[in-house]
Amino acid sequence: MTDVHVYIGSKYRLDEGPQEAEMIRAVEAYRHPLYHLSTDLMTATRDVALIKLEKPCKIRPARLAPADGSENESDALATTTGWGLVNNETLSDTLQTTDVEIFPNKKCANAAANTTVDDSVICAGNGNAKDYCAITGVALF
Hints:
The protein is mainly beta. The chain is globular, with a radius of gyration of 16 Å. The strands form 4 sheets. Strands 10-9-6-11 form a 4-stranded antiparallel beta sheet. The chain is 5% helix and 33% strand. It comes from Phytophthora nicotianae (Potato buckeye rot agent).
């Protein structure tokens, strides 16, 4: 990777605002081997990657869910974060968060008739039209 840095702990998308973030150089990135972006650029499957940092960060690492999917139970609550669209118009400059409920994939498939919902997807949302389903690369924890 050529001169790519990550800002860990920042809530700002741009170099504006107070930066409490730790900046560390990224040395490698590993995209999921089965990642796929649709030709219309609207749907990404297995949209996950790992970034190897030049040195350890001071912030506590994220806790990963078990590989067996046992924590992806329907009706469980999760939080999603991202710099997504505000009022469907512009990207937010500050990190946005919202709580979402994990839904059975069958419910998502019924709601999104023209979308494939398979086992590679965790379906989440809430009834307030607040989610990040149209933005790829957001965090769900």
